[in-house]
Design goal:
Elements: H1 3-11, H2 13-18, H3 24-36, H4 38-57, H5 66-82, H6 86-90, H7 103-165, E1 170-175, E2 184-190, E3 195-202, E4 210-218, E5 221-228, E6 234-237, E7 243-252, E8 264-269
Antiparallel strand pairs: 1-2, 2-3, 3-6, 4-5, 4-7, 7-8
Length: 270
C-alpha cells in the first residue's frame, strides 16, 4: 500500500472528507486519489456503509400518510410546470447533484438525537427515584403513626393494669340473670382514686339497636355511669361517691335517661 494512501486511511482524513470537514485543497487532492486508487475508493465506501447503518438503526419510520401527500404535491407541481411558457423554461437552471452526501449534517442529527435520548433517560431515572423516595416517606410516616398508636394503647393498658392491681381497688363480678345467662362482667371500684371501670369477660350478641347500660344506685336514685355495646372490651365508668350498687339493663342503642327495670340483667352491691 502506498504510504500516502496509508496515511490518509489511518490519520482520519478520509472520515473528515466524508463529513465535509476538509479544506478545498485537501478535498481536491482526495478527489484525485479516489479517481486513481481503487483501494481508497473501497475504504471510502466502507466508511459510508458504517455511517449509513448507524443512521438506519436510529431512523424513525415516517407516517404512512406522508407518501401520498408527497405524490400529490409532485403532481400539482408538474401540472403547474406544464403550463409555463417556453420563456420560463429558458430561465430554469438545472442543479446537478453533488457527489457527496452531507455526512456532517447526518452526524450532527445523530448527536442531537443521542443527547435527547440521554436527557430523556436521565429524566425518567430522576422521576423514578423521586417516586421511590415519596413512597419511602409515605411508608415511614405510616410506620411512625402506627408506633404512636401502639405506644398510646400500651400507656392505656398500663394505666388500667396499675388501677386494677391497686390495693384500694375492689373487684365485683356481675353474672347475667335468666335474661342473659352467659353474660359475665367484672367491675372495678376505687374510692381512694375516685375511679371505676368495667371489664367485659363474656357478652352474648345484643339484639340489633340495643346496648347495655350501667347504673349506680346513689341514695335510692339510679344514675347512668356507662354504656356497653357489642364492640366493648373494657369501659371506663363514671365514678360516683356513695354508690350502693351497680345495675345493668338492656336499653335502646345510645342509652336511656331512666333504667328499664323490666330488662335488668345483672346487679351487685358495692
Amino acid at each position: 500500500m502506498d504510504d500516502k494512501i496509508k496515511h490518509i486511511i489511518e490519520s482520519g482524513v478520509l472520515e473528515s472528507y466524508l463529513l465535509g470537514l476538509t479544506d478545498e485543497k485537501q478535498t481536491q487532492e482526495i478527489d484525485e486519489l479516489l479517481s486513481e486508487n481503487p483501494l481508497l475508493r473501497t475504504e471510502l465506501e466502507s466508511l459510508e456503509d458504517v455511517i449509513y447503518n448507524m443512521t438506519e438503526s436510529i431512523a424513525v419510520e415516517p407516517p404512512k400518510t406522508l407518501l401520498p401527500k408527497i405524490k400529490d404535491a409532485i403532481r400539482t407541481d408538474q401540472s403547474g410546470q406544464s403550463k409555463k411558457s417556453e420563456s420560463d423554461k429558458s430561465k430554469t437552471v438545472d442543479l446537478k447533484p453533488t457527489k457527496k452526501t452531507n455526512w456532517f449534517a447526518i452526524a450532527a442529527a445523530m448527536l442531537a438525537l443521542f443527547c435527547s435520548v440521554l436527557a430523556f433517560n436521565n429524566y425518567q431515572e430522576a422521576k423514578n427515584a423521586n417516586e421511590q423516595l415519596l413512597a419511602l416517606q409515605t411508608n415511614l410516616e405510616k410506620e411512625k403513626a402506627l408506633r404512636e398508636e401502639i405506644s398510646q394503647e400500651f400507656e392505656v393498658m398500663s394505666t388500667e393494669f396499675q388501677f386494677i392491681k391497686d390495693a384500694n381497688t375492689s373487684k365485683y363480678i356481675l353474672n347475667g340473670n335468666e335474661k342473659m345467662k352467659e353474660m359475665k362482667l367484672v367491675a372495678f371500684w376505687n374510692d381512694q382514686k375516685n375511679q371505676s371501670s368495667i371489664s367485659v369477660n363474656n357478652l352474648p350478641q345484643l339484639p340489633k339497636g340495643k346496648c347495655l347500660q350501667v347504673w349506680a344506685d346513689v341514695e335510692g336514685e339510679m344514675l347512668s355511669v356507662g354504656i356497653i355495646d357489642n364492640a366493648s372490651d373494657n369501659v371506663s365508668l363514671k365514678y360516683l361517691a356513695n354508690a350502693e350498687s351497680l345495675n345493668v339493663t338492656i336499653e335502646p342503642e345510645g342509652g336511656s335517661d331512666h333504667p328499664t327495670v323490666s330488662d335488668l340483667v345483672a346487679n351487685v352491691f358495692i
